[in-house]
Amino acid sequence: MSLDPLLRSEALHQCTAAVRVVGLEITAVVGIAFAAFAIGILLTGALWFIYTRTGMTCRQLLRCGAQWRIQELLVRG
Predict the structure, then answer these.
(1) Quick one: DSSP state of residue 4?
(2) Where are the domains of the chain?
(3) How open is the CA angle 31-35-37, to the nearest 5 degrees?
């Protein structure tokens, strides 16, 4: 039940010829990944810049708000 090597080769070629890989090249994938990484770094840097340049932290705002309420109660009381 052995097939002739020429027939086997032809049958294999017909099977693999029907398979076609459609997609992006590796350079495009690497480029997209690098661009996403760079955008992430820039956005993180922007958030850090905003954090360092904006006034008080939430904890400081809550503390000041609590002190302001206590002073308001003392003045009204």
Answers:
(1) P
(2) 5-76
(3) 120
